[in-house]
Amino acid sequence: MQIVKFRGIKPEIRILGVDDGPFEPDYSGKVPLVGAVFRGGKWLDGVMVKSIEKDGLDVTECLIEMVRDSRHFGQLRILMTDGVTFAGFNVFNAKKFFRETGLPVISISRELPVMANIRRAVKHLPEWRERWNIIKEAGKLYPIKTKNHEATVYMQPVGVGRVDAGEVVKLSSTRSLVPEPLRAAHLIATAIVRGESYGRV
Known about the structure:
Layout: E1 14-20, E2 30-39, E3 43-53, H1 59-68, E4 78-82, E5 85-86, E6 90-91, H2 94-101, E7 105-109, H3 115-122, H4 128-136, E8 142-145, E9 152-158, H5 162-172, H6 180-194
Parallel strand pairs: 1-4, 4-7
Antiparallel strand pairs: 1-2, 2-3, 5-6, 7-9, 8-9
């Protein structure tokens, strides 16, 4: 797979951070999916909202549609996601997204995923082999220190090299351990569901 090579990471690089809203364990139905458009880690330029099925298989197509239909599409340079699973185990296929949009993806995890636990959980769902294969093929996880070079998060780049991805993550992590586009998306998605934002402040 070819990758996008940046000629230097600009301070105002346009990043779309995506996170989903919270839900109760026994909930079934739609879950909000929020995209926050940021210039680097400083300015919020826009917000996008869609919905996906809990434990469904529609998040990849939803994100492709979200990006393509957006007035920001021409300026976006990176999609940043909170992991590769949304709304339970609605698994995001970053490689397909990159092929169809041309936008590289950086998935961020606060902790190193335990693959054996994930596989056991996925096996209880329909089309579990498809979900599991997407997770396995999502790419290598790399540790990276962000806020104040103290704590470590893990990034999973697709369509962009490790060095460029690391620069984008550090540049956009201005106020917390996680990059600002993801923090904002999380707060907005939580407010949509709970009526008030919380977490990752």
